[in-house]
Specification:
The chain has helices at 13-20, 22-32, 71-77, 91-95, 131-141, 203-212, and strands at 2-8, 47-54, 57-64, 85-89, 102-109, 112-115, 124-127, 147-148, 151-154, 160-162, 164-177, 184-200, 225-229. The protein is of the alpha+beta class. It has 2 domains: 2-94, Alpha-Beta Plaits (2-Layer Sandwich); 97-229, 2-Layer Sandwich (Alpha-Beta Plaits). Strands 5, 8, 11, 12 and 13 form a 5-stranded antiparallel sheet that branches. Strands 2-3-1-4 form a 4-stranded antiparallel sheet. Strands 6-7 form a two-stranded antiparallel sheet. β9 and β10 (160-162) form a beta hairpin. The chain is globular. The two termini are 23 Å apart. This is CRISPR system Cascade subunit CasE. It holds the Pfam family CRISPR_assoc.
Length: 230
């Protein structure tokens, strides 16, 4: 697996087009990651996430099974005369993950739930819209992703204070064309950025979450979890 960071030029028209359409961003990322990038295998899948650590800085993070080549993306949305992307072998880092370790983390995810549509019918996927439900969605699933969120004592009302922050809460709405029929429609994706500290409980499960993603809407920039030293 490979972990890459690509700097996008905020003044380029291509950058605006890719940021406005997660479908277009997903397509250019897949095109950068080899002819088999659209599949999912035991090693993992292509995941991506856009971060804005500063007002005029846009970073695209990508995890991919094959070594990427972002030349085409840079020509449309970067600085073609400068080296503005890095790719590193992800496997050595993944193999160093052990139970009990603490890491800082960042994840943009699509918190949803399935609402029953009646016996024998497929449930309707519904987004969590309140901050409390979005936090509960994340915390209640951490063990299934191989980690837990530590607490730092209690607030005045007795509720635990978790090492967790929510930001970037919003609804992304964009057009989507069906590659088979050519029909166009509208897609709405609720996105929340989670960041804080985690403690590893199951290294193998966490490695799977890091390379295969978390939650839904992975084709639209959700699900890529990244770690950094505390």
């Amino acid at each position: 697996m490979y972990l890459s960071r690509v700097l996008l030029n905020p003044s380029r028209r291509g950058t605006g087009r890719f940021l406005a359409s997660p479908q277009a961003m997903h397509a250019v990322v897949l095109a950068s990651c080899g002819p088999d990038a659209g599949g999912v295998d035991q090693a993992g899948r292509v995941l991506w996430r856009v971060d804005r650590p500063e007002k005029h800085r846009i970073e695209l993070y990508v995890v991919s099974p094959e070594p990427p080549d972002f030349t085409g993306l840079i020509e449309q949305a970067g600085w073609p005369t400068r080296a503005t992307w890095d790719a590193a072998d992800y496997d050595p880092f993944l193999q160093r993950i052990e139970a009990g370790q603490s890491w800082r983390f960042r994840l943009t995810a699509n918190p949803v739930r399935s609402v029953s549509a009646g016996e024998g019918k497929r449930g309707k996927v519904t987004p969590h819209l309140t901050r409390r439900h979005q936090e509960e969605w994340f915390v209640s699933r951490c063990q299934h992703w191989g980690f837990e969120i530590p607490t730092r004592g209690d607030e005045a009302d007795g509720e635990p204070v978790r090492a967790l922050e929510l930001s970037g809460i919003g609804l992304a709405e964009f057009g989507r064309s069906d590659p088979d029929s050519g029909r166009r429609g509208r897609v709405s994706v609720t996105r929340v950025t989670y960041r804080g500290e985690l403690t590893v409980t199951d290294p193998d499960v966490l490695r799977r979450a890091l390379t295969s993603g978390i939650g839904r809407a992975k084709a639209y920039g959700c699900g890529l979890l990244t770690l950094a030293p505390t």
